Amino acid sequence: MSGSGNRRGRGQGGNRRLVADRRNTAPAKKKKPASTSSSRRRTSGRKKKTARGGILGAIGGLFRLIFRIIFGLLWRGTVVVMLMVALAVGYFYTTLPDVSEVVDGRQRGSVTLLDRDGNVFAWRGAQFGGLTDTETASEHLVNAIVATEDRRFYRHLGVSPRGIASAIRINLREGRGPLSGHGGSTITQQVAKLMCLGRDFDPDIWEDEASYEADCRRGSMWRKIQEMTYALAMELRYTKDEILTIYLNRAYMGGGAYGVEAASQRYFGHSAAEITPQEGAMLAGLLTAPSRFAPTSNLLRSQERANLVLGLMEDQGYLSDAEADTARANPATLSAQALDNTGDFFADWVMTQGPNFLLRETTEDVILRTTFDPLMQAAAEAALADVFTNQVSEGSEAQAAIIVMSADGAIRAMVGGRQTGPGLFNRATMASRQTGSAFKPFVYATALDLGWRFDDMILDAALCMNVPGSGEYCPRNYTNEFYGEVTLTDALRASLNTPAVRLSEESGRDLVREVASQFGIDSDLALGPALALGASESTLIEMTGAYAGILNGGSAVTPYGLVDLRLLGDSEPLMGQGGGIRERVISEFAARQLTYMMAEVVANGTGSRAQLPDRPVAGKTGTTQAARDAWFIGFTADYVAGVWMGYDDNTPLRGVTGGGLPAEIWRQTMETIHDGIPPRPLPMIDPIAEARPPEPELVESDQPDLAQQILMEVLGLLGNNDRN
User: Fold this and answer.
1) Which of 510, 566, 104 is nearest to 369 (CA)?
2) CA-CA distance, 19 to 284, in Å (whole number)?
3) What is the DSSP secondary-structure string of 551-598?
4) What DSSP state is assigned to residue 483?
5) CB-based burial of residue 456 (10 Å sphere; 0-12 exposed, 13-18 middle, 19+ buried)?
6) Beta-ladder partners of 642
7) Among 239-243, 473-477, 720-724, whose mean pLDDT is lowest?
8) Would you state the pLDDT for residue 49?
């Protein structure tokens, strides 16, 4: 066959042999094991390894087991912690209110005090100037706060691990605990703290607001974890601008101001929208220590702090080099209103003159219009400072107090001591001191109202009285001399003691006490004859108010400072107070006589140092035993002023009487106050017109005519009426 032939021919002719594929016909040989020596070496190696693993391997296995356990616990714990954090964040998220509900975080309201012209002169309580957000506030203020408090504010999620680590490192380096001092808190965490993690003040939990705020500021590890969780929830609930808005409005800025608007008004006298770079730096700088860096406490320190903030703003690109240099060259200063810092004694006092729930413990924002006059206050403060600077020994701890008021009792100025500031001891209203001879006008007022006259005679001579329980009482004059028969006017002008005691005893001690009390001296009055010489204690405000009653014609006054009170935003007042004039105590004629007698005290007597160059003055000096207290209280036709001087611990004054330094302080104060006011006469009698007509000489005869008899009877009746 051709096919086979071809195959065969290829085989034969091609000289090729057909060879089948090689196959192993015999069973395949098993792989020859390694040589005995090699096998022995490997076996020996394995045995050595196994032997070594028996010791080190067991230890390694144990470590691997521990590692697997720890790792398992860690990742499981991490998952659990993350779940717990997520649950806490979710819970806080659901409790967070709308921003508008949390911008005002005050527990108490505020009181803004206006002077007699309607200008703000003081603040009390927690001031809140109104809502300010990132859109309405000055960009310089916002930038300054971010640059100072949290430069990564817009980049983090509410917590900054880098900031916390840096704060811990600084605290440890400075020798404090890791969470003591610097906290590394972001603005969001600070807001969480300001919101007290959503807890409101509860009087059943906290004793007072101070305890509540202290609890909100605690710095424990657990508290820090809570703040972080709350901050994360806030970042989910609010936008960055909303968080910053809460901070701008709730942060305490010193001086009783909460929020940047109140602080801007308080320190600079304008809105937060008008803040300059240097002002923004000053406000941002005081956030870390509001009381310490408040410009009203120390302006220079506040300006130095502001310079550091300006540097941060420059470094972070919020200000150019030129802008920062300009701001440093023109540091922020206080407004004239804030710089004055006057009227604190008056403000503290007037806050006690209205309802407690509307003033001292108000939850509302209250506007209080008062009788205060800042110019008169400045005059009183300047007079006191001048006398103590130029006429009192350096280092003296003596104190002084001043009150200026109108005849109706409206208080215009009040100085309660040489130091100024809110919350200080007010010697004008709180200090009860012996009044000395400053009390004598009320003895004479009682006698004059009973019918005595200014030109009646009274004996100045040695006088001793037996006082039950105290023994013999023998008053003496300051000069240790007696002057015989003197007029009532001369007795008061020279401040003689025995005539005052005689007059008090003749008029009736109880009646003198009643007249003094009706004039407004509410302190406990002495029961013995020393009452007439001012042995009783009283306050300066009581004594000055009582003298105002003499000026206005004999009607008592109630010293007052509150004119009206309204809530912020309301146009109508909730309450008001008119003049302080009350019921009549002595007749107008008696008051006019007494005013004349007191004018003689200043014109020709112990109060001559209080004379004013262009107008008459009436007043009375007072110096207590051993010169522990020195008084001068007097008035013109327009204003009454009282001055007290002494030591808080009753140390005797050296070389000071009521007619000395107190009269000098009074004169300087009133001279400034009356500058530009036309002089007016005092409401007093004309002594010449009111003088008693001389008794006619009677012709002696055994049979006097009828006219003489009638004249004698009339004169006798007049004489009797003068003493009744």
Assistant:
1) 566
2) 103
3) HTTSEEE--B-EEEEEETT-SS-SEE----EEEE-S-HHHHHHHHHHH
4) -
5) middle
6) 403, 633
7) 720-724
8) 44
Q: Are 248 and 194 in contact (CB under 8 A)?
A: no
Measured distance CA(682)–CA(619) in Å, rounded: 12
Residue 331 — φ and ψ, nearest 5°?
Answer: -65, 155
Helix 588-604, helix 540-551: angle, nearest 10:
110
CB neighbourhood size of 114 (10 A): 17
| Contact present, 508 and 619 (Cβ < 8 Å) | no
Residue-wise pLDDT tens digits, 684-706: 999 999 887 766 654 444 444 44
Query: Which amino acid is it at 234?
Result: M
In terms of Cβ atoms closer than 10 Å to its own Cβ (0-12, 13-18, 19+), residue 76 is exposed
Taking CA atoms, 96 is separated from 89, 227, 237, 672, in Å, by 11, 14, 7, 58
Q: Is 676 left (phi over 0), alpha (psi -120 to 50) or beta?
A: left
CB atoms within 10 A of CB 608: 15
User: What are the C-alpha distances in Å from 392 to residues 396, 402, 411, 649?
Assistant: 7, 17, 28, 18
User: 496 with 486: CB under 8 angstroms?
Assistant: yes
Mean pLDDT of the region 421-437:
93
Look at residue 611 and tell me whether its pLDDT is greater than 50. yes
The pLDDT confidence band at residue 358, using thresholds 50, 70 and 90, is confident
Tell me whether strands 618-623 and 457-460 are parallel, antiparallel or unpaired.
Answer: unpaired
d(CA 518, CA 633): 18
Give the pairing of strands 581-584 and 555-557: antiparallel
Q: What is the enclosing helix (H) or strand (E) of 415?
A: strand 411-415
Q: How confident is the model at residue 160 (pLDDT cuts 50, 70, 90)?
A: confident
Give the span between the Cα atoms of 253 and 216, in whole angstroms: 17
CA gap 500, 520 in Å, rounded: 20
pLDDT of residue 8: 35
